[in-house]
Amino acid sequence: MRHGRRRITWKGTALVVGAVTAGCALVTFLPQDDAVDAPFIVEGGVGQQLDLTYAELTVTEVRVADVLTSPAEAAAAAGTFLVVDATWRATQGETTFSGAEVTDAQGRRFWPSTRGGCSTSASAQPGYAWRTTYCFDVPRDALAGATVRLARGDQTEEHGGQRRDAVAVVDLGITASEADALWEAEETVSPEAPGYPPVSAGGSEG
Amino acid sequence: MKHARNAGPDLAFRLAQRLVTAVADDMSTTQRVGAGAVAALVAISPFGAWSEVEAQADPLTTGTPVEVGPFEVTVEKAATADELGHLVPQDGNHMLAVVADVTNTGDVPEYGVTLSKAIPAPQNAGIVPEEPLEDLGADAATGDAAAPGDDAGSSAEPSASPSPSAPEEPKLPSATIINIEDGTSISILNPGVTHRVALIWEQSGTWTGTELPLEVVELEWVEEDPLGLDDGHWFANEIAFQGQIPVKPATPEASADERGPSTEVEQQ
Amino acid sequence: MTTLVTPAVPGSGRGTPPGAAPSLQPGMLPGSVPPDLRAPARRRGWWRRNIVWLVLLPIAVAAAAGASSFRVWAYWWPVGLHHEVDRVAVGEPAHLAGEYYDLGFDVPERANTMVLREIDATVTGIEQVERLPPPLYGDPVTIPDGSVAYEVQVHFAAEPQTDLSLCQIILVSEEGTRYGESTTDAQGRSNRCSTPDAEGFVSEQPEWDVSTFVLADPDAEITQVRLGFGGPEYVTADLP
Question: Which of B212, B215, C44, C201 could form a disulfide with B245 if both were Cys (CB 3.0 to 4.6 A apart)?
């Protein structure tokens, strides 16, 4: 039976200090959050159909505009508008696609706005394709190498809503030389309201 | 044979124990408390307990950029107008607009609401206060609570408890932020993009000043928020810049189309 | 090896009878060897000591997980069809009973109370159609490219003034894909369980028929029709 206090020894001190250091190192250097929470990223290019677990997504067209016109309002870009047309086809049930974000080559992030009649999210069900247009007001140096990140989960709080969910990252295919030409051109775009894709000849009539 | 109790760490502990005992044994309880307090004060010194509290605000002048949080703001001018696009004041009042160039210098988008927290409504300038919630109509089912003139600018945080007694300071609304070039409402400010915006409040017609006492509040990034559980947000702390901005009076023409803000303010 | 004689150590042991070897237990005869106490096999001892708690451990873990699952009960369960209350074949009546919080828009007496909604639904027909008829209000809708349309006919029976808002009539394919989950159908009608000329969201007749349209994938094989009102309860009608 032990009486009195434990002795503080070199061995004991070394054990405690070593354990605390090891614990701190483990928590700091092992990317535990990344491993547990990482989204499943599906990469692709413009015109390519990407298979996310809950939907099929195709970014159909990328345009750059200085002015957007819609029945409600006209919007002028402070930088320039990156206009991304995408078609969603849900595969599970009624789904709202809340994530839409452009990332540039330096890692800066840009969010869409509703100015000029554009959408910031989309909502669709299985059984039909749903067209949406997103518009991002970006500076000149964001154009070259920009990618768009579209998903069901939203991107606030460091993409918190996209944890362990499928996410599409599409390379918009803008090279450095194209970027200069696109920036200089004065274009006006009228984004279409979200809806079914345009009916081609031979489709069923209503 | 060397016993464990003479090893380094234990020896150090016992010596320290001896020292404290030797000093404290001769003290009365009061003296021990006093000594403890002194020791505590000494202990917190390396953690910045004695740094001066900033009370001075730097001067704010038109044309000079200031850094506030993720934004770089250059106030251009202040102007009044009878109407600004879809913003129509009550009878006898007019709209006050502060024109500024705003750039998001960070790497991530910021909300327009954050900017309106950094540039609050000027005090003592006749800005029409927010209507308390209970005055906005008895029928809760309709849910229509917008007051004319400051619909888009109404504060995002309605008061949790409607003020029961009159003498409380009325709360001034946050600004409606309009992009001057096209008259659209700004809710997101993307990095690297400079917007020329108008921060608009409804102002009482009885205010006759020629200078606006504008304040810019510093924004502090709160990474972890143990109190409000709102991790990762910009917190409006203390006034960082303060200045008198000359106000140009209203123009006789008031146009009601969406290019209103641009034509109104450009003519000043 | 046990010693029979230990060197005398002053002060060790109490009351040692003079002359007796100090190592012997009292009452033992000299020359005998004290029995070896069996050293407890440590592993067995630990298990025996802890067996009850080990058995209770999985139960405790399950209870803790259950107690922490408040969010499942509060957020996931009520939103979406999670509780099948009746399952029938197409053509047979299914009884759907579920509670909902009535806001009193249609029947002011029920405002802000929990109300039990009971309704009998019989799927009387489901077939693919070539075009969508124009709705009573609004523009006609064309079936988009890459989609087919189904018309689902349902016969309802319920007490008059039964709340029918947030009605969902869903076609489920063999793979589990749910078509028509929205409260607004392919024609743009958002009052799917009511007749087109109904004014409010409550039933007027004790029995009535509705027809609703759902867009689906062309190669989907529809195996079930589900009916619900947004809440966890729903009924299923299996296709033959």
Answer: B212
